[in-house]
User: Fold this.
Amino acid sequence: MPQNPYSDEMLINHFPGFTNQYVTVNGVRLHYVEGGTGMPLICLPGWPQSWFSYQPVALELAKKYRVFIVDIRGMGSSEKPQSGYSKKTMAADILALVQHLGLPKVHLMGHDIGGMVAMSFAFNYSQFTEKLIILDGSHPTEGMMQMSLIPAPGAFTEKMDANRPYAWWMGFNQVKGLPEQLLAGRFRYLLDWLFHYVMIDDSKMTSLEREVYASQYNDAESIRAANAWYQTFLEDIEDAKIYSPLVMPVLGIGSYISYNYMKMGLPSVVKDLHLVGILDSGHYLFEEQPAQVLEAVLSFLA
Assistant:
């Protein structure tokens, strides 16, 4: 029987020097890949992607750091339980992984939903957090309640409007049961539309990458689990109300879509903030502008 070309075992060939690992921590089986040497750097991906999204930057990061790219709870080859998708619980998954690996302190880097989990880790486990990097995704706050159900006049066009972004999937992903019926076996349609909408140049998202993510999200269980990341936002917002501002150095990297929002929101919850705008990139920064991401990240961590 031919091997699935989008399995972890096949895809790791695109990450020379990295290996696949599987471990059960905090009651959930997680998949991660590991490569490089140096200070540990935990990398968390976002929706609708997986560990493979770090491919444009992983090899350079691994030249200076011991890199762990983790499929968070509900993602890729990691387990997809029925519950536990608050960012606080998912951060506890990462803490349990860090402790399992025997790491006293780590750098954390997260994109999109992964940025929310990374930020929750820093809020809850500051003693384990050396430096934090978030890309186009900070912890849910009450500001989310202001997101529009209907797009502003003229704002919903072929590309996402930076000043009046319309993210209809934030509502769609709240719906239980229906998205998996509509999208199972057809997830590639959503991916292609989304990448075109939120990227400046969606040709930078290769056909291989699209096929990888389509294969990872194409079944009902994977869609249910990924949507659960969104369905816990109200719980996340309540958790955020009691967190003290972060004191470790934090790098925020924003695309043309998110930079202004990060500039407005992060200073109230971060004491030592470094902010970089990559304004010639859409939401998927690793794919559109990997060199700029690496320059910002490596200079911040150095």
User: Anything to note?
Assistant: The beta strands are 19-25, 28-35, 39-44, 65-71, 106-111, 129-135, 246-255, 270-278. DSSP finds 13 helices and eight strands in the chain. Residues 87-100 form the longest helix (14 residues).
